[in-house]
Amino acid sequence: MRARSGWRYRGNVALRTLAGTVGAYAVAALAAMLLARTLPMGRLEAVTVATMFSYLFAPAVSVWAFLARGPWVALGGVVLLSTLLAGLVWTSGGFA
Question: pTM for the full model?
C-alpha cells in the first residue's frame, strides 16, 4: 500500500477537488444557460426547467472528477466540457 501523505497525493486530491467543485459549478451554470436559451417554451418555464436540470450536472461532474484516471484528465475534461458549453451558449445568442 502506498503512503498517502506526500505532496504528489495532496496535489492529486487538490486538483480533483478543484475540478469537482469549481468545475462542476461552471458546467452546471453553463448547462443551465444553454438549456434556458434553447428550450422551446416560455422564458420563465425554460429558466426553471434549465435550473432543475443543471442540478443533475453538478454532482455528475463532481463524481467524474474523482473517477477519472488522473487529476489532469479530470481537470482537462471539465475544462473541455466547459469550453464546449460556453461555445454553444455563445452561438445560441451570447452571454447576457
Answer: 0.86
